[in-house]
Design goal:
With 158 residues, this protein is mainly alpha-helical. It is built from eight helices and four strands; from the N terminus they run αβαααβαβααβα. The protein has one domain: 3-Layer(aba) Sandwich (Rossmann fold), CATH 3.40.50.300. The chain is globular and about 40 Å long.
Length: 158
């Protein structure tokens, strides 16, 4: 989910594991020449999901830590592509943590239906995150360094 810490932890993890880091939200913005929010505002949440899938399927990064957008899990093809090339890690945080970290989610470019609350989105995505994860890290109550430590210890990358 947005606010789970995936970009921040990803940078730390890449540094500590001597890997490169890629944030696919930035790749999407670069490919489209506009912000995620502009894509959602002008074309709708489904358009952002299609662009995200296209970008993820075009990635062929080896020896990288990749932070995907939160809606990547809606694409079975993209998630299976990522799993073939690496380990998928789910940073499991509570809805309360997500709400605290992101504040006004309407400003975040979150790919969701207009009639959908953050809680509904969280519930919808939660089962998808768990189903695609090769590794689930209970990140609630942990800071970014602690989450990074846990990933390194669990995967043996450190």
């Amino acid at each position: 989910m947005p606010g789970s810490g995936k970009s921040t932890v990803g940078v730390l993890l890449a540094k500590r594991a001597a890997m490169d880091f890629v944030d696919t939200d930035l790749l999407i913005q670069s490919a489209e020449g506009r912000s995620l929010q502009a894509i959602v505002d002008n074309d709708g949440y489904a358009a952002l999901r299609r662009v995200e899938e296209r970008v993820l399927l075009a990635t062929d990064f080896h020896h990288h830590v990749i932070a995907t957008g939160g809606s990547a899990v809606y694409s079975d093809a993209a998630m299976n592509h990522l799993r073939v090339h690496g380990l998928v890690v789910f940073l499991d945080v509570s809805l309360a943590t997500v709400e605290e970290r992101i504040g006004n989610f309407s400003l975040r470019g979150i790919s969701k239906r207009n009639d959908q609350s953050l809680a509904e989105l969280f519930q919808e995505r939660y089962r998808l995150y768990r189903s695609y994860a090769d590794l689930i890290i209970d990140a609630d109550g942990m800071n970014q360094d602690q989450v990074c430590d846990r990933i390194l210890a669990t995967t043996g990358l450190g």
